[in-house]
Amino acid sequence: MTLQNDSPARVRTERLAYHLWQEAGCPEGQADHFWREAEGLIAAQEAVPPEARPAASDPQPPKAAPVEKGWGAAVARYFAAWWAYPSKPAGR
User: Fold this and answer.
1) Per-residue confidence at 44, pLDDT binned at 50, 70, 90?
2) Is the dihedral of CA 54, 56, 59, 64 positive or negative?
3) Is 60 exceeded by the pLDDT of residue 12?
4) Which residues, at least 6 apart from 22, have a Cβ–Cβ distance to it below 8 Å?
5) Global pTM?
6) Under a CB-based contact definition with an 8 Å cutoff, are residues 38 and 46 in contact?
7) Residues 63, 69, 75, 81, CA torsion sign
8) Residue 1 burial (C-beta neighbours within 10 Å; 0-12, 13-18, 19+)
9) Whose CA is closest to 38, among 7, 63, 9?
10) Which of 16, 45, 60, 68 could tie 73 with a disulfide, CB 3.0–4.6 Å?
11) How far apart are CA 17 and CA 11, in angstroms?
12) Judging by beta carbons within 10 Å of its beta carbon (0-12, 13-18, 19+), is residue 27 exposed, middle or buried?
């Protein structure tokens, strides 16, 4: 399926492929796989008669958590990164 750069079908396929890629853990080098999977899912959805479709036919990607601002958020990010670092000094 060849789609124009800004067509609604391309945007829908792109969003679904991105959502599938994120659900799979963001593996590298598999963009074509997720694009074809998204096209197949959309084609399957369009094959169902409109009266048999659920109200929301497009899966909505999860919303990103709000970014906290300010000094407290910066300290929290620093300690979260420090705690996740694998070579913490012993006894902490």
Assistant:
1) confident
2) negative
3) yes
4) 61, 62
5) 0.49
6) no
7) positive
8) exposed
9) 9
10) 68
11) 10
12) exposed
